[in-house]
Structures are given as structure tokens and as C-alpha cells.
Amino acid sequence: MTDSFTPTPIDALADRLALRLAEADPIEATAVGITDVDDRLTDFSPAGVAARIAVARETLAELSTLTPESDADRVTAEALRERLGVEIELADAGRTVGDLNVIASPLQAIRDVFDLMPDGDPRLAPRLAAVPQAVESAISGLRARLADGSWPFPALQVREVLAQAREAGEQVAANAARAADVAPGVTDDIHAAFERFAEVLETEIAPWAIPVDQPGGLGVGREVYPLYSRLFLGTAVDLEETYAWGQELLASIVAEQHDVAARLYPGATVAETLAKLDAEPRYVLQGTDALREWMQRTSDESVSALARTHFDIPMQLHHLDCRIAPSSNGGIYYTGPSADLTRPGTMWWSVPPGVTEFHTWQEKTTVYHEGVPGHHLQIGQAVIAPLNRWRKLYSFTSGHGEGWALYAERLMRDLGFLDDDGDLMGMLDSQRLRAARVVLDIGVHCGFDAPAEVGGGAWTYDKGWAFLRSHVAMSDEQLRFEYHRYLGWPGQAPSYSVGQRVWEQTRDGYLAAHPGASIKDFHRDATALGGMGLDTLRAAIV
Q: Quick check: pTM over 0.85?
């Protein structure tokens, strides 16, 4: 681990911020790799949320009294102002207390944090005992949001999270088998807590929730969406231009897929090609053991090849731990190494119940996205870089991080790692999904006219579903979850493709400004910066 640098006053402020954030939000601390508070859970009540926003305000006030002493300081200061500033704006708009969606709200945070803790960890038992209080704090947030009335609950999100809550008690209580010295009655208390959460949703929140065919039931609206967009991008984009660009990008990817389909199976449509690829034995894996082994082998091979050529990959990052996730919602995700590197960077594959067959043509690009040169390289580089702790661990921005990972997918095609047309079709399928999300997310939430392919006019739930089904090669069960994720998490889904666009523009600008520089130089300088918003990136990589 590389910590040999002399901190400036701004670094010291950022380090204190990281520790204050860990104390205020132990679940997020575990996620980013600070394990000191792994015996606690987060307070999601209005008071708990207010305490975290107070930390942001106090940090910005102190930052205003400090003068940057170096380029690194200037980047830290700008990243702090941008990240904390948009979080404060979101709180001031009344959009933080009582958050509820199918993927990234208090229920999922409480449920999923245990996945990141090893068996036998002595902090498992006290953290399990803290579940009822954390759930109760989330309930108080829901009630406060309902009482305020300015941020209505979409009925679809209420219904889906209610179903998750009915299952969460069993999922979390199962961790008692992994812990030592769990007090009697803890598992019963956990079940009761999540059942109470479900009951509150059903009896108190659902009667006031907005159906999908009414304003506020499907999208958040043109006025508030720009704030969410900035939260996930770290830049303000022209939403009308980006919506049009997303449709053009989608059309170009579809055209490229047609070309690849013609090479693979002359005369076949893209949809027929995807079905044929699924049936080819060379791309099929049976069982999660085979999936995990293939993930690990593919990751190891990419690290070995890229470390010799296009990237400087520190030895501490040469291993990515590939695992099957305890949860079963179908997601694939990455968690970074802990600050002390005792917990490795990990790619998690959450396999839905009953799914036993997997197709490598579709997922090789996923390993590159989550591993190297994607998230594992970028996030891992930040952890071992000579940066303050906040920049190492807390300054992740979706447009920057997910944009890089999508940039990495297409880069692997350019570097010759997707010369197999089946694997190439998988990458294009992934890119098509992300382009479709730009169109759907911005269009639905901003109320723009739907594309002609679904009849134009106002977006409806059914038009959105038809649009996704025509562009995304997923099972209906997986796709339905994805769709509901976009509806409940505005601004996040487009951040991948929009971020990729900015990364490619930034790379081209860097190479033009540095005659003789190589793409390896760009990758080295860019990944050394840590996470930040896209405006900060463009200013920093000059």
C-alpha cells in the first residue's frame, strides 16, 4: 500500500471527512472499504440524514478557509465542492429522507451489507443485533417523507420493495450461521423488523402512493431530473441533446450488430443470432462452480496480458476475487479492496433462483467491465495511490466510474481481446443496453416524446417495457427488475454511456495536447486521480 506522501491541510480535511462519514454511515463505510465500524449500521431517520448533511456543510465551510498548495490539492478541493455541493442540493430539495427504490435505498443497504463481511467476523453478531434499530430508523424516514408530502411515493417502487422486505428477514437472519455468539432471539427480532417494514409500506405508504399512469408515478419530472443527473455524472449535460445523441448511439450499435450477425450466421437477424449463440456448446457453462471458475480464469488472463502492454497494473491488484453472491437478484457488481488491502477487490455474480446455464459470449465483456481494465483497475488504483482517504474511497461518481468501465469494454475490442465475433456481439449487446437506458431514463423522467418505434407521444409504462424488450437480451424476469430500477433511481442508468462519451473525449483531448504520449500514459495519469465528477476530470487531466 502506498501512503508515503505528506498531507496538506486540504488532505487533512479530506481525511477527517472520510472518518466522519464512516461514523455517520457505517454501511457505506463497509462498502468503500473502511472496516472500523463493521459492528454498526446506519441511522436512516431524518436526524441521521441531517447529521450526514451537516458533515458536508461543515466540511465545505472549512474548505473555504484553505488555500490549495498543489495541483493535487486543487483537484481535491474541486472534487469536494462538486460532490458535497450536489448532495446538499439534493437534501435541500427534500430528496434524501425516506428514499425508497428497488436497488439502492435503506432496505437494500441493510440487507446487503452482510455480504461484504467474512464468516466468523466478530463484528457480525453486534451488527446483526443492530438490524431492528436500523430498520426502525428507515421506517421513520418513510413516515417523515409521507408527512412532508412534497416527494410522493411511486406505487410501483412501494409494491416491489414491499415484496423484497417480505424476503429480507430470512436473507439477513441467515447470516447468524456465519457469526459467533449471536444472542438468543436475534434472528426472531430480524424477521419481525423486516415484517414491520413491509407492514408499514402496505398499510401506511401504499394507500397514498402514485400509480404509474399518474404524474409522479412513472418519472420524477423535468424540473428535478437535472439534479439527479448531476448527482450521478458530476457535470450538467444538455438533456435534450443527450436524449437525441442516445437515440443516434443506439441506432449505430444496432447497425454494428447487424454486421456481426451477418458474419456469424448469414441471413440471421440479430435476435436469431443471439439465440444461436446461446445454443453453441463452446459458449455454454453449466452450474455456478463452472461460472465462478471461468470468471476467475478470464480475469487472470486479462490482467496478465494487459499488465505487459497497455496499463501499469500494481502487483497488489493482479488478483481479482471472483465469487457467486449470496443474494439472488441477478445483478453483477464489483466491491473494491479495503483500505488496508486485507479484503481483495471482488466481482460478485448474483444468480437468480433456478438459473444454472450461463453463456460466455454474453459475459466476457462483463468480466472486463467489473475487473481489469474496468472497475478493479480504476478503483483499486485509487486505493493504493498516494491520495487522501476521501479521494481513495469516497469520491466515486457513477459517470466517472461506470463510464470508465464501459470505456474499458470497448477498449478491449480495440485492443484485440474481442476478435471472436460471439464475444464481440456480447460487448455490443452490453453497449446497446446502456445506450437504450440513456433514451429510456431521460425520456421517461423528463417527459420527452417517446421514439417512433414505440408509437411516439408520451412515454407510458407499456411503451417503456416494449422499448427495452426490443433492445435488451435478458430474460423478462431480469429485465423487469432492471426496468423498475431505472424508474426508481433517476439519472443513474444513463451515467454509463454518458460517462463513456466523456472518457473518450477526454482521452482524445489528452493525446492531442501531449504529442508523443501513448494511451498507456493517459491510462496511468487518469487512474492515478481517483474518483471524481466528470467536470473535475476534464479539468484535472490536462
A: yes
